[in-house]
């Protein structure tokens, strides 16, 4: 995200961001989180990720445990299912407002994730910055529409492939073999995003690897080794 | 959405909205669409729904037809699957920006849906209105996070029940038997939203009806007759 507060800073957006982070330090509105530590985000506050990355998660307030769809091979779980909803990386804002019937929550996805927070009305001091925040949410909204498109696909392998494509399109970094998702995701987390199970994701990831559509780096990061090929594949 | 452009209009937001609609009429920036007619929305333009309702849809640019997950009972479809992504009702803005690997599209969901459009820079004339548009997208983004939470549920019946709950929570109107979704949705459209099929949705809707969790009005609208009960049910 780019920030600009006056004409001098407009050409150097880093200055405004840094000024707001400094403001956060001065006003004790910053905190560093350990990997997988929950950020106690509250409605009405705006959060800025200065370092690291945030993982957004939605948890059903409690499972509808009595449903029996007559076909599921697994018993309903007593634990609330947490769904992975995406990343917010450094330089981006997030907020947690909507709740029912799910609790949205934010976790530090990597160690030493630094978050600064403020009230929305603090933004009155930085009107151009507020616009940048709005623009970021506008962008995030459009990305979520694409996610929903992916999750509407009927076949699990299509949901999985489209989900990975969207993640790497948004967060991917160039690597030796194409583009690489810089964040670790467990198969259970992927399953929680696409409405599937860890076991199924493991099986289908194996299939995608054998087809050469994805590869896994030594550090377990997911890559799309033939990015262009994958795109062409879909354009067939 | 509430609009306010100056202090006099701030207390009567309808005035600003009406003024912008009038501006649209004057500048030939309005059009009335038939039910299921596509709105030819382009990136960079902002659309306001003045009457009726818009249905957002995501279509895979083309299906990944060669995948075989080894368990699907249905053959891969040659037709691109369109996923239902939600409604935009009167008084709300929408836009279509993001594309790859899905085409987002907008359709009139009801007959005589009226849409006014403008360039984003036209909003320079109405800074407060622009803020309201941003606030609406901020809200829509939060709602989509809830949708993603619903679609991450592993069991189809839970995805279905949470999906319907979210829709009725957002758009529901009081009726004799609780709250009613004022828009028709086919079982195929519901299936396209929750990653399932028309056949499965029909079967599971029957189950939810027999359990008394939903009811269907004579005009085929979906109701939650025991809204509070449904909520309590989840809070068990």
UniProtKB/TrEMBL annotation, chains A, B:
<dbReference type="InterPro" id="IPR018335">
    <property type="entry name" value="Tscrpt_reg_HTH_Crp-type_CS"/>
</dbReference>
<dbReference type="GO" id="GO:0003700">
    <property type="term" value="F:DNA-binding transcription factor activity"/>
</dbReference>
<dbReference type="Pfam" id="PF13545">
    <property type="entry name" value="HTH_Crp_2"/>
</dbReference>
<dbReference type="InterPro" id="IPR036390">
    <property type="entry name" value="WH_DNA-bd_sf"/>
</dbReference>
<feature type="domain" description="HTH crp-type">
    <location>
        <begin position="154"/>
        <end position="227"/>
    </location>
</feature>
<dbReference type="GO" id="GO:0003677">
    <property type="term" value="F:DNA binding"/>
</dbReference>
<protein>
    <submittedName>
        <fullName>Transcriptional regulator, Crp/Fnr family</fullName>
    </submittedName>
</protein>
<dbReference type="InterPro" id="IPR036388">
    <property type="entry name" value="WH-like_DNA-bd_sf"/>
</dbReference>
<dbReference type="InterPro" id="IPR012318">
    <property type="entry name" value="HTH_CRP"/>
</dbReference>
């Amino acid at each position: 995200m780019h920030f600009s507060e006056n004409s001098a800073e407009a050409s150097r957006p880093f200055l405004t961001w840094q000024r707001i982070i400094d403001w956060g330090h001065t006003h004790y509105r910053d905190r560093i989180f350990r990997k997988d530590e929950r950020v106690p985000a509250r409605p009405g506050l705006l959060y800025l990720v200065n370092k690291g990355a945030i993982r957004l998660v939605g948890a059903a307030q409690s499972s509808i445990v009595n449903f029996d769809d007559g076909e599921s091979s697994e018993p309903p779980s007593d634990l609330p299912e947490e769904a992975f909803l995406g990343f917010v990386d450094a330089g981006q804002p997030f907020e947690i407002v909507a709740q029912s019937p799910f609790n949205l929550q934010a976790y530090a996805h990597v160690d030493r994730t630094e978050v600064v927070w403020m009230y929305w009305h603090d933004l009155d001091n930085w009107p151009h910055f507020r616009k940048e925040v709005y623009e970021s949410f506008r962008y995030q909204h459009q990305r979520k529409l694409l996610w929903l498109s992916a999750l509407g696909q009927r076949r699990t392998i299509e949901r999985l492939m489209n989900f990975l494509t969207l993640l790497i399109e948004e967060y991917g970094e160039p690597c030796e073999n194409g583009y690489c998702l810089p964040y670790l995701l467990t198969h259970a987390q992927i399953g929680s995003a696409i409405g599937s199970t860890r076991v199924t994701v493991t099986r289908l990831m194996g299939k995608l690897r054998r087809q050469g559509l994805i590869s896994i780096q030594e550090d377990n990061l997911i890559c799309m080794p033939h990015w262009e090929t994958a795109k062409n594949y879909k354009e067939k």
